[in-house]
Design brief:
alpha+beta, four-stranded antiparallel beta sheet, three-stranded antiparallel beta sheet, 4 helices, 34% helix, 30% strand, elongated
Length: 158
Amino acid sequence: MKNHTGNHDVKVDTVKAQAHEKQAITSWERSGVDGFLSQWGHGIQGQLASKQAEIIENGGTYRLLALYQYARVVAARLVDGPYGLYWAVETDQQAKGLNGHYSIPFDNSHEEGGKRSTAQKKLGLSQRWAYLPAKAIIVSSGTGLSGTTTAQVVVVRE
């Protein structure tokens, strides 16, 4: 949440997280399992506010795996596709020397039996951990009430 100067305020997010946690407990005490949806909602919103406060405390950054082309961070996100993880490159980045490639195989050479991505090597790409501007969001693979079972707080690049 932004304060009056336009900057994010960690205290506001921390207070929001505590308020959501308190509301979830109050809802449980008041209605037991009948209020499960509001309890879940307050719980997930509390997790979101806590993670956002953590990001703000770290100067608006979070440690994320990033795709680099030499020393430049490429605007790409990791996607779990039908054949495993790959980097989905943003369209504006495709014109910046990636020869029209928009999906780059994930390099799993750090894993046992893994191998170096030849596509990354040919394009001068590498994967590295870095502190990047980030935000916390809630993601789910379902919709409606079934979406609550898979909803979780994750951190993504801004």
